[in-house]
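Batch job 17 of 40 flagged for manual review because the log was empty.
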Amino acid sequence: MNCLGCRIASGMEPDLNIVYENEYLTCVLDIVPFNEGHLLILPKQHYLDVEELDSETAQAIMAASQKLSIVLKKIFCPDGISICQNGGLFNDLTHYHMHLIPRYKGDGFSWSEPATPHGAELRLRETRERMVRGLTAHVQKSPFTS
């Protein structure tokens, strides 16, 4: 297994701090936590991006995020929890993983504004229309409906 995410999810890496595990996923403490309790949820099967997940794995990830959010709130009493997943070039693990990060007012965590203004805020109506057309085309091609 060359994928670090696969090795973590399968328990093959040393010194893993596994918090929760089931047949679909493994949840571990991030080794460089933003705040105490920062968790990663990794599927046991290899996926790179969210759109590749099968529905059972996606549902297991969401259920685990709900369960673990409750635990994080009870144990660490954060002001909130940020949940995020980075895809494509921004997925440094090259294996799908979801972050659950306990958050506190003034903790320095930031969802920043774009480094370079790109004018997207001026095209909201056009962007919505493009996305609705794309979604409609996707649904028409798909044997599944949402």
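Reviewer: the log was empty due to a logging misconfiguration, but the result itself is present. The chain is about 30% helix and 15% strand. Unflagging and moving on to job 18.
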